[in-house]
Design a protein that fits this description.
Elements: H1 2-18, H2 20-33, E1 39-48, E2 53-64, E3 68-70, H3 72-82, H4 85-104, E4 113-117, H5 120-124, H6 128-139, E5 146-151, H7 159-171, E6 175-181, H8 188-193, E7 198-201, H9 203-207, H10 213-229, E8 233-235, H11 241-249, E9 254-255, H12 266-274
Parallel strand pairs: 2-4, 4-5, 5-6, 6-7, 7-8, 8-9
Antiparallel strand pairs: 1-2, 1-9, 2-3
The protein binds ligand C2E and calcium ion (3 copies).
C-alpha cells in the first residue's frame, strides 16, 4: 500500500509539474476560493489513552466548483509558492479560533484544544505573529487552547528566529506541536531548545509499525525521546486496534486516526459533540 501510495503521489507531482498552465489556473481559482466560500475546515478528534476527547485538529478542505474536492497536500504547496498561503492561513486561524471560542462557551467542551497546521512560509512571514494574536482576540478564543502544528522541515534554516517567534507566541499561552516528526532531519540539539508542548509521530511510521521493524524502532525512539524531553507524544494515522496497542505498549498516550474518527465536517461535528454533552 505504501509503494502504490508513493507512486500515486509522484504521479500527481509530475502531472502538476508538467502543466504550468494548470498550476496557474489552480492558483487563480484558489485566490477566489476564500472570497467565494469554497473553503471549509474539517475537525479530526484526538483522544487520550482512556478514551477522553482531548481536542481536534483542523484540516482545510477546498471544494473546487468544477473539479470537486482538491487535497490540501496538492493545493497547500501551490498556496505556498504563490504567496497565497498567508491569506489562506489567516482564514484558517480565524475560522479555527472562532470554533475554539464556541466550544469554550460550553462547559462540557471548555477543555478542548484545537490544533492548527501552519506551513513554513506562513510561519516565517513577518505578519504571522500578529495574525495569530488578531485571530485570538477577534474571536475571544483562549490562547492556551490553541496549538500550532509546525513541521520538522521548518527546522532546516534560521532556527534562531523561529525559536524567538515561538517563544513570543508562547508568552501569550499558545502551544506548539511538532508535526511529521521523524520524517525530516532536525537536530536533536535544536529539539531541546524549541518551546514545544507535543511531538506528533508521522502517520507513515504508524502505518508500517507492525510490519516494518525500522518503523517500529523509530516509533519507540520518538516516544522515548519525548519522555526524556518531557514532551507528550501523539500518534496520527492510527487505523487499527493493533496499531493503537503497539503504540500504547511503547508508551504513547494520545491518538488520532480513522480507528477513532475521520475528520468531521460541520454537521458531523455537531452530532459527534452531542455525545460529549455539548
Ligand atoms: P497532516 O497535518 O499530517 O494531517 C494528517 C492527514 O492525515 C490529513 O490529511 C488527515 O485527513 C489524514 N488522516 C487522518 N487520519 C488518518 C488515518 O487514520 N489514516 C490515514 N491514512 N490518513 C489519516 P489531509 O486532511 O488530506 O491533509 C494533508 C496535509 O495537508 C496535512 O497533513 C497538512 O500538512 C496539510 N494541511 C491540511 N490543512 C492545512 C491547513 O489548514 N494549513 C496548512 N498549512 N496545511 C494544512
Ligand atoms: Ca498536522
Ligand atoms: Ca502529519
Ligand atoms: Ca517503512
Amino acid at each position: 500500500a505504501k509503494a502504490s501510495g508513493r507512486r500515486q503521489h509522484r504521479f500527481f507531482d509530475t502531472a502538476l509539474q508538467a502543466s504550468i498552465t494548470e498550476r496557474a489556473a489552480l492558483i487563480g481559482d484558489l485566490r477566489m476560493a476564500v472570497a467565494q466560500q469554497q473553503l471549509a475546515l474539517h475537525y479530526q478528534p484526538q483522544f487520550d489513552d482512556s478514551g477522553r476527547l482531548l481536542g481536534f485538529e483542523a484540516l482545510l478542505r477546498w471544494r473546487h466548483p468544477e473539479r470537486g474536492p482538491i487535497s490540501p497536500a496538492l493545493f497547500i504547496p501551490l498556496a505556498e509558492e504563490s504567496g497565497l498561503i498567508l491569506e489562506l492561513g489567516q482564514w484558517v486561524l480565524q475560522r479555527g479560533c472562532q470554533q475554539l471560542a464556541a466550544w469554550h462557551a460550553q462547559p462540557a467542551l471548555a477543555h478542548l484544544t484545537l490544533a492548527v497546521n501552519v506551513s513554513a512560509q506562513q510561519f516565517r512571514s513577518p505578519g504571522f505573529e500578529q495574525q495569530v494574536l488578531d485571530a485570538l482576540s477577534w474571536s475571544g478564543a483562549d490562547p492556551g487552547h490553541l496549538k500550532l502544528e509546525l513541521t520538522e522541515s521548518m527546522l532546516v534554516h534560521d532556527v534562531e528566529s523561529l525559536i524567538d517567534k515561538m517563544a513570543r507566541l508562547k508568552r501569550h499561552g499558545v502551544q506548539f506541536s511538532l508535526d511529521d516528526f521523524g520524517t525530516g532531519y532536525s537536530s536533536l540539539a535544536y529539539l531541546k531548545r524549541l518551546p514545544l508542548d507535543q511531538l506528533k509521530i508521522d502517520q507513515g511510521f504508524v502505518r508500517d509499525l507492525l510490519t516494518d521493524t525500522n518503523d517500529a524502532s523509530i516509533v519507540t525512539a520518538i516516544i522515548t525521546l519525548g519522555q526524556s524531553l518531557g514532551l507528550p507524544v501523539i500518534a496520527e494515522g492510527v487505523e487499527t486496534e493493533a496499531q493503537r496497542d503497539a503504540l500504547r505498549q511503547r508508551g504513547c498516550r494520545a491518538y488520532q486516526g480513522y480507528l477513532f474518527s475521520p475528520p468531521l465536517d460541520a454537521p458531523q461535528l455537531v452530532a459527534f459533540l452531542q455525545r460529549y454533552g455539548g
